[in-house]
Design brief:
single chain; mainly alpha; 14 helices; 54% helix
Amino acid sequence: MTTTATEDPRETPGAGRPADEHASPSGTAGASGAPGAALAVLPGVLASALAWTDAHRTRFALPDDVLEPHTQVNATLKPLGELAQLGSTIRRTTAPGAPEHELAGDLVAYAWEQLHEGALLLELLRAEPFAAYPYEIYAAFAGYGLRHEGFEALARPLTATRAWAHTEQHANRQLGLVNSERRVGVVTHTDAGGVLSRTWLGGLSEPWMFEGPSGYALTHTVFHLTDWGRMPDRVPGKIDGYLRTWLPAWTDGCLESGQWDLTGELLAVAASLPGPAPAELLDAVWPVLADVQHPTGCVPETGVPVQDPAPDPYPFIDCYHSTLVTAFAAALSLRSLRQTDARTDETTPGRERHTP
């Protein structure tokens, strides 16, 4: 699913759409969007992406043989874990009582039911005590308040082993494990700051070295650092400035090459920064991604947006993640922009407060 952000799509993104109906999605992040353009499309993008996800919730269901060695984790447990992680963030980011808030919570509850309220994760941990992924999936629920006593009783001694502390993995993955430990509420096996310094982002790598794998490593570094956008103040000042400077160029490259999934992740990063929202970037990019979104609410990972009016224009495996990411980024962007507006209202004399 990881792709190179600089590769050319087979055609210009948006080709085949009537000129008077849709603007071309290609290469617009470098230009400023109209002020408020993001807020104009974000509620609809969020609602539509969540509606598609809800309509396809059974596609996230786990097979009966999920515990068998031959079962592919990336096609079963991974999508369900992503549903839980991104759904729980959307739930926390949206206002209580809003339809999106309630639907996101319902999707998390569905994912928890699929895992037999954590019992299935306990079986996975027993079978693979050396694996981190059952713990990371569990942490998504634990951070939301859903816990399983038996899982934690077994995980506690396992995460205290030398093997756990010395598992060899990429720095951004290790940062994810640290965040999982924080969510569960145990002592972290290493210092997050030291791990961050070893990531592509933490090293403030040359921006022209950005491509697909480094892009996904970068976005997940921010997600793990900020607990999926919930704690923007964890982003150090130097990294905040670096991202604000280079996100527009990187996002523009993703738009030009039709990398919609990575575009969504970069938008989520932009909305996870401390302080004022990067409104100029959000206003430029969100209308483009809204144009790529199919009327059913799904968003393709890469390539030319199709014009097929069918209920399922893309295979599920080719759009579920990018659709979830779009909803996740939309929820974070709405929060960031509204908080910025609220701060402006409070500091501008005589300005009437208004929340879109």
